[in-house]
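Cross-check.
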Amino acid sequence: MSIKIRLIIMNFLQFFIWGSWLTTLGVYLGNSLGFTGSQTASVFATMGIAAIIMPALIGVIADKWINAERLLCILHIGGGIVLFLLSGTTAFEQFFWLMLLYNSMYMSTLGLASSLAYNTLKSNGLDIVKSFPPIRVWGTVGFIGAMWMVDICRWTTSKQQIYLAGAASLLYGIYALSLPKYRREYSSENVSIKNISGVDALHLFKERKMAIFFIFSMLIGSALQITNTFGQPFLTDFSLAGAYSDSFTVRHPGILTSISQISEALFILAIPFFLRKYGIKTVMLISIGGWMLRFGFFGIGNPGSGFIFLILSMIVYGLAFDFFQISGSLFIEQQVNPSIRISAQGIFIFMTNGVGTIIGTKLSGWVVDYFTDANGYRSWENIWFVFAGYALVVGILFLKLFNPKKSI
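Predicted model, tokenized:
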């Protein structure tokens, strides 16, 4: 099997697992388990709490001692076991802690998988900016496939979505043993406390360019978690309006949401052109503009005359996500010393899926609760316009403060 095919399967499984629950778990928690908006946000915040410590720590271990492919095996098998335990849990407190344990393992694998792909492509003499996006797009295909399976099988409000993620996680853990060996570029001999703690990667914050990049990665990462947490609950709430109760939006929110991932798959292929022609600043600004449009279109959309705005919101999601998450990862790969690359990717995950997730989920939970009346009715129009305003402010600040030389 060719190197690219092996990496394609890895990316497919990596994001199939996430797609099994990420966009639908909020519906299951609210509709089936009766969790409040704040409780649902707290469950999703476990991704951020886990990403604060684990990705950077696991990155140091992979940089110094244990190969990335072996860590992927350990973490995904462990994650699969925890997911099966989670499927039988209904109490908020137990669900929260098990989800935190699971995300401590899963969030660590995001940076590992990217670093393994970069390392393998480089070892085989391939250009990562050109070669990685067509491989990574299959992760999006996996995410879409999982979403469609959950939607078509009517598992949106069922714990079956968690069973699906658990089974896929165990499969990935076994498959990881067949992945190419990570060629470490740093010797584990004479490793200092500084190396072990990952402080050697934290020096990146001393560089103004990298410090500002990581801070805005956190702020943009907050926007990502808002739609992950409340995108599908927003769509399913249209069932409360008699005119829309039997609409396609209400009956198949997963399929509608998957347009976002289809769009993502297409925009991934445009990343090499935009990065080389315009540089990281312009690409990130396009991403921030995409988030503003994503929220704004949700604010004016509905399953009737405003259905086109729901579709447009799904389309711009691909632009917003790819031009931030994937371009940012490639930017870091080009900027840092080979000895701390996995650690640096861990910091990126820490800022986006860690601190950013906590900010995004907590603030969005408060906003949703603020615009929810005593009868449980949510004013989604106001909610989404608040988020669009947030993205606009972040974009203006980024334009003024981030001024790197064109680096990719």
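The chain has a mean pLDDT of 83. Residues 92-123 form the longest helix (32 residues). Passed to J.P. for a second look.
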